[in-house]
Amino acid sequence: MRKAMMVAAAAGAVLLVAGCGSGEGGSGKNKGGSSASSSGSTTGGTEAAGGDSPDAAAVEKEIDAAATAAGFVRDASGEDVPAGLKSCMVSWTADAEKAADPKKSYGATVTTLTGGGWKEGQKTEQAGSTIQTLNKGGWSLKASNHGAAGFAIVMFIATDNSSQCEALFKADLEKPATQ
Predict the structure, then answer these.
(1) pTM of the model
(2) What pLDDT tens digit does each residue of the chain (179 aa) get?
(3) How far apart, in whole angstroms, are the C-alpha atoms of residue 165 and residue 172?
């Protein structure tokens, strides 16, 4: 329960500090450019510039390969993507306690992803947290590393910025909260 609350708090920090798929950052030390346009892809999965945009399964496979090669083990207990959004969102949480050096593994994961075609966007560093935006096709990935005394949380949350997915995200946000 405590771990789930820490993951939820870190996810909130990702959204507040780095923005949610929009490239609009919050406070902190920003480096790099902006993220992809939210209208960068169509429902057909192609980028406005004419390139192919990966699907959710391909994005998840890339994150998984990069993170596990860097020494992370996946902790799926903190991941709960709503069923209707699984084609538009990928959440990959590392069990940072099992990594020898979570900060080093985070850096290696980001390096592998950029070597695989993900373009660096905005980077925010604040109070022990680093959030790096990466873009590929119509996808925006927030790679986040949160470390403080006694805990470390590393997450990779990718969203498809297509108009179809934006409509699905909006519809999901407008649903009444369930208890």
Answers:
(1) 0.72
(2) 334 334 334 444 443 333 444 433 333 333 343 333 333 333 333 333 335 789 999 999 999 999 999 999 999 786 789 889 999 999 999 998 888 899 999 999 999 999 999 999 999 999 889 999 999 999 999 999 998 767 889 999 999 999 999 999 999 999 887 75
(3) 10
User: Cβ neighbours of residue 68 under 8 Å, at least 6 residues apart?
Assistant: 74
Q: By three-state DSSP, how is residue 115 classified?
A: helix
* Residue 178 DSSP one-character state: P
With beta carbons less than 8 A apart as the criterion, state whether 143 and 121 touch.
no
- DSSP codes, 40-94: SB-TTSBBTTS-B---HHHHHHHHHHHHHHTT--B-GGG----GGGTTTEEEEEE
Angle ∠(31,110,2) on CA atoms, nearest 5: 95
Cα of 65 vs its chain's centroid, Å: 15
- Asked if residue 36 lies in contact with residue 135, where contact means CB atoms within 8 angstroms, the answer is yes
Q: What is the DSSP string of 13-45?
A: HHHHHH-SSS----SSEEES-----TTSB-TTS
Helix, coil or strand: residue 111:
helix
